[in-house]
Each structure stands twice: as structure tokens, then as C-alpha cells.
């Protein structure tokens, strides 16, 4: 959610005329995240989030926006995209595809408690069940082919022999994993702490569906556990892990195939975010407000999974 494309007050005021939102009061760029330009927007008729899509395939944008509408229509705590007076959810601003969604209440948490972990696990299970009825299709842009290609590029680029060895060894290990053979569905693929909102211990919103895609459901659970259940120094928090997995399994139980592949699935999820952060660290992008996340925590998580078996189910 960095700011790569600047928007002036006059440009935004003109843009908002196509929506039934009243008059512009104010707006502010959002610095977190790394992919899109985002602004908080306040108008006389509500509070909104404006997103300008910087690098996403424009053909995939209807999938993301349609998924958010589908989930919200089924009672899931997802932001609802706003339609223009002409009826479309996807528009453009300053040469970039753009969308306006209702801003949800609540704040993200840095140090979640057990009840918050339970609610996230339950919400992820709900998302996976509700998503089965969503007809849209979108491939995972950060899937196995991307991990292989990006890993090879970074292994060639780095001067750190230990980093190179870890990338090459993990890519060889991941060749044994076929996520396509595991139960599939719509996944969020980025359900990190900064993408879930709470008011106290009540989950009020799941946001940023712009990595959502069709992929292995267990992979999505692994992505979520890796963020919510590890400490900054790479240590696992067993209580959070147990709270989240138990809540998820109350809504959707894992298959025998998922359990058998689980250690490699956890490693695939850790590898994906280590590589993406390492890539952004190695090839930084210009922007007005750009947030580049440290790759080191995900290297530690990957190493943990390589050296320790996951907690028993």
C-alpha cells in the first residue's frame, strides 16, 4: 500500500464525481505495503479507501473486486467495492486502474492475543468455504513458477554464499511438492496481521484481496500461520498456532494429503515471502512513500521449518 502515483486534491475531486459519495473532505496516502498506491479518502457521505493498481494484471482486477463483493454478500467481513453511477467497480485515475472501497472500522494488531488468533483462523476457514461458490478464476502470480524464477535470479544476484545456498537447496526441496494435487479453492494469499482489522477482540474486517487467487487451501493456511504465529526472532508461538489451527479446523478439516505434505507447504509459504521481500530489497522501486519490508524474519521462519517438524495436529 505504498504511494507510487501522486494524486492532487483537484484530480481526486474530479475523480469522485463519478461516485455517489458527496463532496471531498480530505485524503491521505497510506505508507504500508509494497504493491499498490492507496489513499484514505473522507467525503461528506462516508470514509473510503482508494487504490491505484500499479503492477497487477488489469485482466485480473475484476476477479479481486468480484470476490470482495461475493464474500461481503455472504456475510464475510470484507470491504465492499463501490460502483460508479454508471455501474462499474473498476475505473481509472492518472493513467492507472483504480477502485474505491468502503473503509472498514477497526485497526490491525501487531501482537495478537489468542482470541484474535482464533478469530483469524475461523475467518480463514469461512473464506475458504464461501469461496468455493465463487465462479471467478485467477492463477497465483506468486506460485511455484514465480518462486523458481525469482529464486534463481536472486541466487545469481546475491554475493552472500549462505543466502545462495539456502535458496538453491530450498528450491530443490520444493520440487517434491505439488500444490496442485491438494484441495483447491479461492485463497487470500496475504492474510497478514496488517490485513485484518479488530475492535478489541472482535474481527471487523479482512482487507487487501489483491493477491487473492485459486490455489491450494493449505498453502493459504500456512501463509497465515507463518505471519501470526512466529515471533520476530523466528521462534514459534505454540499457543497462537494451536488457537488458530483449531479454529480453522472447526470450519474446514484438512485432508490426509494436506497433512502429509504439510511440512513442505509451510516451507513454500515462507519461501514465497522471503523471496518477494529479498527481491524488493535487491531491486527497490521509486515512490513518494515506499515501505520495503525486511526479508530477514522470513528467512528465519523458513530455517525454522527446515529444522523443526510442525506442531502435531
Structure description:
The chain has a five-stranded antiparallel sheet, covered by helices on one side. A two-stranded antiparallel sheet has the order 6-9. The protein has a two-stranded antiparallel sheet with strand order 7-8. The two termini are 35 Å apart. A hairpin with a 2-residue loop joins strand 2 (37-43) and strand 3. It folds into two domains: 9-102, Phosphorylase Kinase, domain 1 (2-Layer Sandwich); 114-307, Aminoglycoside 3'-phosphotransferase, Chain: A, domain 2, CATH 3.90.1200. By secondary structure, it is an alpha+beta fold. It is globular and about 55 Å long. Helix 5 packs antiparallel against helix 8. It is 42% helix and 15% strand. The protein has helices at 9-16, 61-73, 114-131, 144-157, 161-174, 217-228, 238-251, 256-282, 296-307, and strands at residues 24-29, 37-43, 46-52, 91-93, 96-102, 184-187, 196-199, 202-206, 213-216.
